[in-house]
């Protein structure tokens, strides 16, 4: 196996797995550390999806090291630590502490951090992260329910999370191509930095960074910076890309959308689905907390909905509504109440004939997939950048589209079904 990847959340893992598969690596995604007996022998890349983004840093480090160990045992030659393209984290972690721990694990003394994903509007210029042209701290990420991002300068953000010295390889070096990027890495190393934020404004930059860093024992970033790795590996092995898999068959059955993300993209997608007349149930966090509403009442509602189209169950709310709920219930507690309700609903879905699921939100997807006991995924076609259809590799046969909160066009919930046979 060429590349072993540790992703800090499920939709992020799917995003990375799609990038690697699309660029020609045979890729398998596992939910948690691969179980014993899972056949990884045909895979060029394995992406292990953890749920470590929001847990305390020591726990994130422990989970990540366990995954790295398993990947190394399965033959991974290089490691990739995948986090969010909007650098979701707090001053306590977890991007810094996990990067440090994986550096130590690989024995490497240098790595890069690049969260740019231009296809989804994330660019990094002079170390500052922009989301659709707006500095991170002015974007909707400033209101994220769990990791509000209030500083766009990633050198500063990462330096607050790590004892390793953080440097910068900026746009001019990246624009000049792989050799200039390699020289910039050497320059930053000589200056005493062990992690460098790398600028990238477009896919050509990402491919050049991939070529320059393909032999690093450890890379870190969003899925974008993995874009150039498959071609770099092929260059070193003089091989050609395997042809992409043909078509995507989904198991027959009913369709449902579960949305726990409150991101601006998900809010738009929920609004578009409601306007299109998709039958929908809104979960109110305060009613869930009081017991007035529950997974059971949601399932009762679901049983009364028409079988021939998707239904939507969502807790998606505006930043003001989320803040009001959090001030009463606490940030983590509110999230937990909503996630466990959606997980409770998910658990009952196969028995009701639901086999095709779209789930919106990384934490939400983690909770849902755990409830469904899915432990490995094959990667199917791209619905929108960063979001493929996937199919469970064992256990209950399901087609799953696990959507990162901020990804997808407004009609994502409507159009995704067209790709299924
Ligand atoms: N109405 C609500 N009030 C308070 N918290 C909510 C509400 N709806 C959802 N949440 C919580 O907000 C969090 C949303 O995180 P999630 O990772 O699912 O979405 P996201 O952050 O938009 O997506 P991603 O991580 O992919 O960017 C979850 O913990 C969820 O339970
Ligand atoms: O990188 C991204 O933005 C996504 O893959 C993600 O991690 C959101 O949870």
From TrEMBL:
GO terms for molecular function: ATP binding; kinase activity. It comes from Microvirga tunisiensis. This is 3-oxo-tetronate kinase. Pfam families: NBD_C, SBD_N. It is an enzyme of class 2 (transferase). Gene3D superfamilies: Four-carbon acid sugar kinase, nucleotide binding domain, Putative sugar-binding, N-terminal domain. The keyword Cytoplasm does not apply. It comes from the Bacteria. The keyword Acetylation does not apply. The lineage of its organism: Bacteria, Pseudomonadati, Pseudomonadota, Alphaproteobacteria, Hyphomicrobiales.
């Amino acid at each position: 196996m060429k590349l072993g990847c540790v992703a800090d959340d499920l939709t992020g893992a799917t995003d990375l797995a799609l990038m690697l598969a699309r660029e020609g690596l045979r890729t398998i995604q596992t939910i948690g550390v691969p179980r014993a007996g899972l056949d990884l022998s045909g895979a060029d890349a394995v992406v292990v999806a953890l749920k470590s983004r929001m847990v305390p840093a020591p726990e994130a480090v422990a989970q990540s090291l366990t995954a790295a160990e398993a990947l190394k045992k399965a033959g991974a030659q290089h490691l990739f630590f995948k986090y969010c393209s909007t650098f979701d984290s707090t001053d306590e972690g977890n991007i810094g502490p996990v990067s440090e721990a994986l550096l130590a694990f690989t024995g490497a003394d240098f790595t890069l951090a690049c969260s740019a994903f231009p296809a989804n509007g994330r660019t990094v210029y002079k170390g500052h992260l922009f989301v659709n042209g707006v500095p991170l701290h002015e974007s909707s990420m400033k209101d994220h329910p769990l990791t509000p991002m209030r500083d766009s300068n990633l050198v500063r953000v990462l330096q607050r999370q790590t004892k390793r010295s953080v440097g910068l390889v900026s746009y001019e070096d990246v624009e000049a191509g792989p050799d200039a990027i390699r020289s910039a890495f050497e320059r930053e190393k000589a200056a005493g930095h062990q992690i460098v934020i790398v600028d990238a404004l477009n896919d050509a930059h990402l491919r050049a960074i991939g070529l320059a860093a393909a032999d690093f024992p450890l890379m870190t970033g969003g899925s974008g910076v993995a874009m150039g790795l498959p071609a770099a590996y092929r260059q070193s092995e003089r091989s050609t890309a395997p042809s992409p898999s043909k078509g995507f068959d989904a198991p027959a059955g009913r369709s449902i959308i579960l949305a726990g993300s409150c991101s601006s993209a998900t809010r738009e997608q929920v609004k578009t689905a409601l306007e299109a007349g998709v039958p929908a149930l809104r979960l109110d966090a305060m009613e869930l907390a009081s017991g007035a509403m529950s997974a059971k009442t949601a399932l009762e509602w679901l049983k009364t909905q028409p079988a021939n189209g998707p239904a939507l169950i969502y807790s998606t709310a505006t930043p003001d509504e989320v803040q009001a709920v959090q001030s009463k219930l606490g940030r983590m507690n509110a999230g937990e109440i909503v996630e466990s309700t959606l997980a409770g609903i998910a658990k009952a879905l196969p028995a009701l004939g639901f086999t095709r699921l779209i789930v919106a939100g990384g934490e939400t997807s983690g909770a849902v997939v755990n409830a469904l006991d899915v432990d490995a995924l094959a990667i199917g076609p791209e619905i929108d950048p960063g979001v493929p259809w996937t199919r469970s590799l064992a256990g209950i046969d399901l087609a799953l589209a696990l959507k990162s909160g901020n990804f997808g066009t407004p009609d994502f919930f409507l159009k995704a079904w067209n790709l299924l046979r």
